[in-house]
Amino acid sequence: MRPRPTNxxxxxxxxxxxxxxxxxxxxxxxxxxxxxSRTAEKHHEVSTTTTRAVDSTSTNSAAxxxxxxxxxxxxxxxxxxxxxxxxxxxxxPGPCLTVHSPPAIHVYTEPFASFPANPNGAIETYRSGxxxxxxxxxxxxxxxxxxxxxxxxTGPKGFHQVGTLSSHTADECPSGDCDDGWDWVPAIDExxxxxxxxxxxxxxxxxxxxxxxxxxxITPGIRVLGPSTDSGHNEAAPNAQVRVFLTGFRSAKSxxxxxxxxxxxxxxxxxxxxxxxxxPSTGRAVVAVPTxxxxxxxxxxxxTKYEGVVYFAPVTIAQPYAGPALVVGPLPAG
Length: 334
Prior knowledge:
Elements: H1 15-20, E1 49-50, H2 61-66, E2 84-88, E3 104-109, E4 114-115, H3 121-125, E5 130-132, E6 137-142, E7 149-154, E8 160-165, E9 182-185, E10 195-202, E11 207-215, E12 221-225, E13 235-236, E14 241-247, E15 254-263, E16 266-278, E17 285-290, E18 298-306, E19 309-317, E20 326-328
Parallel strand pairs: 5-11, 9-20, 13-19
Antiparallel strand pairs: 1-8, 2-16, 3-6, 4-19, 6-9, 7-8, 7-10, 10-11, 12-14, 14-17, 15-16, 15-18, 18-19
């Protein structure tokens, strides 16, 4: 992967230090912490073969309606909601940037962002091999030189995805030994049954495989999944659409989604909008939210408070940088 050009200032700090950092929100019990930054990203809008596909957004029409204009239209601030939310965005390299090995697939999972932070901490869960609905996960497919690499994923109840990760160019790998591989960030939604999964990758001269397990929701959380995904700056283009995962809110019939807005990578985000989002009995949903067309590099922070903890997820509206190494959502067909 190559360093990505950006005009957003980023804090590049060690992972453990960033996990320990907390900035209190003004007039709101919350904080903003980021522990991962991406380079060389690409969004593939192509089909993939998936058995037992479920469109989870279609089953949550009321929730979709509630958040339809959450990033486009401001609303009056409820009296018990804070006026500002202080956020630090941008951090050290993502997990797949630090993996250099013989052909191998590594599975990295991370907790949902919250304040106070998840007591388990990302350090303990980073290589647990378990992932739940909506949870951040990176499948690092490494050591396959220039590629391409064919990927095969199988799971319970006939779940099956196949795809091809495109070749790196000679310019990206001038030595002819491209050891950075690919970072696949799948969207773990209702179409993924709970249980064990096997993933394998094969190129002309290399192959590797590993396993992981999808489990029921471990903790509550919010996650925004856009074309360019990281916990500091999940970028999505103007006039596009992002998927917002809400999970683990078992005892709630609804949550209040509070949106804050700021320009750039960090600072005091001002209140923008609030909406009550109905939830099914499972306590989880996926909703589609239009990004609108705000000023360049506008960051929205989606937050909710549940049982004394503030859960949050950012999305920055900008043109995502296109690169070959990051695949978000379904595998590219081929």
